[in-house]
């Protein structure tokens, strides 16, 4: 079990160095992540990494006049049988950023009715578009039936075209169990140098302390710090502290946003390639994607019922995250009862464990739930309203 839980931490650097020897997208991403690992090993802060990235790219900070223009952003997400929190997901992003949301139904026959006040800011896409003239479609279409990530990637590409028609400036891919947090709201993007075509946002993962939640957006406050932000020794210490649990149960490589423009395209669900002439990317300092993954056994059971037939490898041939395979096997071998025991042993933390993570600097308390609740009680900002909205806060752990 320790070997499985240490999979990412002990082998990530070695794996990235191997990927650096191959060609294509994998090498680009591997070099980027390996550079981050090297910088964290030198003890640089997130802000210092960002400045180092700019210096490495030979770029200057933008002119102050550029910072005064607030960008218009969109969010693309793919959903299947969305849970009750989906309304909160939409309201938070629409109200907080005045964004447009492109919602792709993974099951085109599934019903989804939006409240009237959300409809101007949300576009629901059901049709299964085909376009053999687009290289991304030709690449991913053969995988559509068995690989949700392939469908997500194609939907991201389609959303780029919709966002261009809507005259947006940026597009982000965010799952329905996630919240996008920009430290200075839309001004965060206004400060991105013009030559940068895409940005990477670190993800933190909810520390699950309950078997069920009324709303995980309202009730989850403690988030485990992404191991890429921790020195390797600290990441190992966090693992050892949890004894029977994985530290992160899902991805650790963040999410991405991209400027809208010719040549912009997705590189799988976690990365975009910037528009032509803007192929550089940086990590946004202080920004986060809060991932409310596995919050509540009901959601956990639903997910692995759907994923019970997933293969051992991703669509690019890489091995899936060991946690996913272990959870799948627990369900296949023992059904709901087996998965419930797996959840109790490997997912759910005690309050003491969550507090210990905070005390040692391996988790932080994000005060976002109150803001989500407030947005659910008021009419949403329209996408055309570019006024600054209230900000979330990071509470000291």
How does the SSE layout of this entry go?
Layout: H1 2-5, H2 7-19, H3 25-41, H4 46-57, H5 64-67, E1 73-79, H6 86-97, E2 100-105, E3 122-125, H7 135-140, H8 148-165, E4 170-173, E5 178-181, H9 187-190, E6 196-201, E7 203-206, H10 216-219, E8 222-224, H11 232-242, E9 255-259, E10 265-266, E11 272-273, E12 280-283, E13 288-291, H12 297-306, H13 322-346, H14 351-359, E14 363-367, H15 369-375, E15 393-395
Parallel strand pairs: 1-2, 1-4, 2-3, 6-12, 7-13
Antiparallel strand pairs: 4-9, 5-13, 6-9, 7-8, 8-14, 10-11, 14-15
Helix pairs in contact: 2-3, 6-15, 12-13
Architecture overview:
The chain is an alpha/beta fold. The chain folds into 2 domains: 2-57, no CATH class; 64-381, no CATH class. Helices cover 39% and strands 16% of the residues. The chain contains 15 helices and 15 strands. The protein has helices at 2-5, 7-19, 25-41, 46-57, 64-67, 86-97, 135-140, 148-165, 187-190, 216-219, 232-242, 297-306, 322-346, 351-359, 369-375, and strands at 73-79, 100-105, 122-125, 170-173, 178-181, 196-201, 203-206, 222-224, 255-259, 265-266, 272-273, 280-283, 288-291, 363-367, 393-395. The strands form 3 sheets. The chain has a 7-stranded mixed beta sheet, with helices on both faces. It has a 6-stranded mixed beta sheet with strand order 5-13-7-8-14-15. Strands 10-11 form a two-stranded antiparallel sheet. Helix 2 (7-19) packs across helix 3. The model is unreliable at 1-55, 57-64 and 379-397 (pLDDT under 50).
């Amino acid at each position: 079990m320790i070997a499985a839980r240490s999979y990412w931490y002990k082998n990530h650097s070695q794996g990235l160095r191997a990927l650096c020897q191959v060609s294509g997208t994998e090498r680009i991403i591997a070099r980027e992540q390996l550079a981050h690992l090297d910088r964290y090993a030198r003890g640089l802060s997130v802000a210092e990494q960002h400045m180092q990235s700019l210096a490495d790219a030979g770029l200057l900070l933008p002119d102050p006049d550029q910072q005064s223009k607030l960008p218009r952003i969109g969010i693309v997400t793919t959903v299947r049988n969305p849970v009750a929190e989906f309304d909160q997901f939409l309201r938070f992003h629409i109200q907080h950023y005045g964004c447009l949301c492109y919602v792709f139904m993974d099951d085109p026959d599934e019903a989804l009715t939006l409240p009237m006040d959300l409809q101007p800011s949300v576009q629901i896409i059901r049709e299964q578009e085909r376009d053999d003239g687009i290289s991304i479609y030709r690449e991913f279409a053969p995988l559509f039936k068995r690989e949700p990530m392939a469908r997500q990637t194609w939907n991201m590409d389609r959303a780029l075209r919709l966002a261009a028609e809507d005259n947006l400036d940026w597009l982000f891919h965010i799952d329905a169990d996630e919240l996008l947090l920009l430290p200075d709201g839309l001004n965060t993007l206004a400060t991105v140098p013009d030559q940068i075509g895409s940005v990477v946002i670190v993800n933190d993962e909810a520390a699950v302390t309950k078997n069920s939640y009324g709303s995980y957006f309202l009730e989850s406050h403690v988030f485990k710090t992404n191991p890429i932000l921790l020195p390797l020794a600290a990441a190992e210490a966090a693992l050892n502290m949890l004894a029977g649990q994985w530290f992160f149960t899902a991805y650790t490589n963040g999410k991405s946003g991209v400027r809208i423009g010719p040549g912009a395209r997705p590189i799988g669900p976690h990365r975009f390639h910037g528009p032509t002439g803007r192929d550089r990317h940086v990590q946004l300092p202080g920004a986060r994607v809060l991932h409310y993954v596995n919050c509540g056994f009901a959601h956990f059971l639903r997910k692995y019922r759907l994923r019970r037939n997933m293969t051992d490898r991703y669509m690019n041939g890489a091995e899936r995250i060991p946690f996913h395979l272990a959870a799948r096997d627990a369900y296949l071998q023992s059904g709901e009862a087996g998965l419930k025991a797996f959840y109790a042993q490997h997912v759910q933390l005690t309050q003491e464990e969550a507090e210990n993570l905070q005390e040692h600097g391996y988790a932080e308390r994000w005060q976002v739930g109150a803001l989500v609740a407030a947005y659910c009680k008021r009419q949403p900002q329209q996408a055309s309203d570019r006024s600054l909205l209230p900000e979330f806060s990071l509470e000291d752990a």
